[in-house]
From TrEMBL:
It comes from Halolactibacillus miurensis. Keywords: Membrane, Transmembrane, Transmembrane helix. It holds the Pfam family DUF3899. InterPro entries: DUF3899. This is DUF3899 domain-containing protein. Residues 33-115 form the DUF3899 domain. The chain crosses the membrane at residues 37-63, 95-116.
Length: 117
């Protein structure tokens, strides 16, 4: 359940956004708000995958690796530090990068379509 809590929260917020937009009876706003929300969600995940969280965890884990590496425990000196940012799967990063670009372009197209009409 802990693994899926962020996805559930995202879906509940998305459902709330759609219901709120539908009650205002403006179909364009419903579509535009939904795609904007999804774009921001994907952008946040993409940025956290490639920059902030990966580097933060690299520094944190390196510090923990240095603290807990002692001569008293057998085998602890042979362990090597492996950065988290190298463990992130490239297909996941590419997926969120392309999803972010897709929703950004769809938002821009919706905005252009709305302004032209």
């Amino acid at each position: 359940m802990k693994k899926h809590i962020q996805g559930i929260a995202f879906l509940l917020q998305l459902i709330g956004l759609v219901l709120f937009s539908l009650t205002t009876s403006e179909s364009f706003l419903t579509l535009f708000n939904t795609t904007t929300y999804i774009f921001l969600f994907h952008l946040l995940i993409y940025l956290s995958l490639v920059t902030l969280h990966a580097r933060f965890f690299d520094g944190f884990l390196y510090g923990m690796h240095r603290v807990f590496r002692s001569k008293n425990r057998p085998g602890s000196m042979e362990t090597e530090f492996q950065p988290v940012s190298e463990k992130i799967k490239r297909p996941v990063v590419h997926f969120f990068k392309y999803q972010t670009l897709f929703f950004l372009l769809s938002n821009l197209l919706l905005l252009v379509f709305y302004l032209l009409n």
